[in-house]
Amino acid sequence: MLQTLSDLPQEIVFGPWVLALLGLAVGSFLNVVIFRMPLILERQWWADVASQLADRDSFRRVFRAEAPAGVTQAGSALTKTLASLKRLSIAQPGSACPACGHRLRWFENIPVASWIALGRRCSACKTPISARYPLVETGVALLFGVTAWRLGGHASVLLWCGFGATLVALAVIDWDTTVLPDALTLPLLWAGVCTAAFGWLPALTLQRSIEGVVVGYLSLWAVYWLFKLATGKEGMGYGDFKLLAALGAWLGWQAILPIVLFASILGALVGIGMKLTGSLREGRFVPFGPFLAGGGIAVMLIGLGPVLDWLGWG
After folding, report:
1. Which of 142, 160, 177, 233 is most buried, by CB atoms within 10 Å?
2. Which domain holds residue 253?
3. If you ran DSSP here, which 8-state letter would residue 106 be given?
4. pTM above 0.85?
């Protein structure tokens, strides 16, 4: 069987239809990452809070006084509460209904098909299953298929598929929580640098990748501080700097300005649409990360050369 697969032309093995099917499976996994990673982070943040509350020496250094008994007791109670929670990771426990805890059987976990077959409801408690699950799966399948069509025919397309899949996860998590986890942005950045260092993508040199990291990070860092000095407010989070640095690691420094331009246009259109429809509540803001991710995917699929030509920068 393996010999038969190895005899197939690379144009088929790494072609749009095969990678679209792979994208369905990856999309199903990303749904788990999108749901669980923010919870894992929040647990860690609460553990940090508990540790800080129990640290009498730290309290004394900061407040120049002894910690009230209630503070340390709260820290101890919080630590016990956290310890009572069931272990949570990306891999464990198995997929389950978030409403009733029903553990999904294998035939209830088939991308898109199970959602349709179950009538869009949990088989145990009949709670509606969000349409976002099949949308993410279908979206990643389309992304992988289009990536294979534009860049496929060889094994290196898998690198670009991994790049795109990570951006999808970051975009959805940031949209939900306004947080871009370091657990995704930093590996994405280093993956780009390592890909360049090992020469896995012919057009990406190590120098170009490192220049992309530096320009990507410092450009938004400078905008952040200029805006903060001018207004006294924070216009974006540090996660945006790291995400743009990661995009630079994969696409090079010349891609930074087109990515930001695409992201700004897309973000403005979405923000205006949300404002007009009343879905943007007063005091809330639209995170920039999803639009940076969208800009990065656009440059990847279109190609840096054509994008620069369109903008007259070629």
Report:
1. 160
2. 156-314
3. G
4. yes
